[in-house]
Model the fold of this input.
Amino acid sequence: MSRAIFKFFSSLRLTVVCLAFGVALVFLGTLAQVNEGLYQAQAQWFRSFFVWWGPSGAGWHVPVFPGGYLLGSVLLVNLIAAHVSRFQFTWRKFGIHLTHFGIIVLLVGQLATDMLSHESQISLKKGETRQYSEGFRRYELVFLTDAPEANNDRIVAIPHTMLKPGAEIRNENLPFTVRVQNYYVNSELRRRGPMVDTGPPPATQGIGPQAVVTPLAESKDMDAKNTPSAIIELGGPQGSLGTWLVSPDISGEQEFTVDGKLWRVTLRPERHYLPYTVKLLSTKYEVYPGTDTPKNFQSRVRIENPGRGENREVDIYMNNPLRYEGQTFYQQQMDRVFVDENRGSVLEVVRNPGWLTPYFGCILVGAGMAYQFLLHLVGFVTKKRTARA
Done:
């Protein structure tokens, strides 16, 4: 039985089938980006083990096509099994071994990048300091209260993936229960008009009685951003504390009191805290003469890291990122509305533990092919000279 399994995974037919499915996956996944958007198409087709399908509005889905993770994993196993079964280690085959090892590094590195890498951003105005970055499309429901330590907040964050209608969320650090009545992936908020909006308000507490929330279809455009909102009910030992409307469009935090203690609630982009601070000192925005085409975006920032006793200034500009503490800071965009003294800057923050694997894998593949080519070239030249002699 084990011999049959090993023979199956080392088969060249399996290689051909996986490559054929891979070509079809790239083609179909690229077409899917038209209707599903880039990020959703990547998640459904390439960053998954199966592509799932189900009728619109149905609560069930079935796998209809192998996803990128499954095809990559099978190809990796196939490559290793085929190499073990067909190749013996000799110096004449060293280039082939090196090339295969480089391909394995590329496959493993790509899988590690997809599963472990993380992207976020830091938005700064001149003179502003931040110690966290924010997610692009991920949000969190946050409850804050004063901590025993001075000038600190105790924070309880609930990821947006848990905010499903009907969900009841309990946390040992919260003296109340959170019940999700509604969650809208994309929405629009406006102030309630007393003569126009005659229906009931979306919530009873905070800004809820003065607001109107309109659910919108999820935007799948790369340049568009969804604005989620949720209607939650807080329940304490004495019963319901009322309902609240939370959204990133609501400026500030909404306050309420439980057992004599002040709490604040907000729905905001997911935050990733850093062990150091980033302060924007100045910006530079240059375009090519007579056009609006950007020539140079540049931000000068100060990095203060008490843990390492470090305080230094760094320039971040196009094609010149800052690599620091396992993260890479890229110059993403810059405000053009304000003059240089007040212009804001947006830095993209990427954490990718496997960022070196593509370079290492390509070097191994290139070295293996060069070794094998030179070995055959030397052998050919030697045989030719021997034949002439």
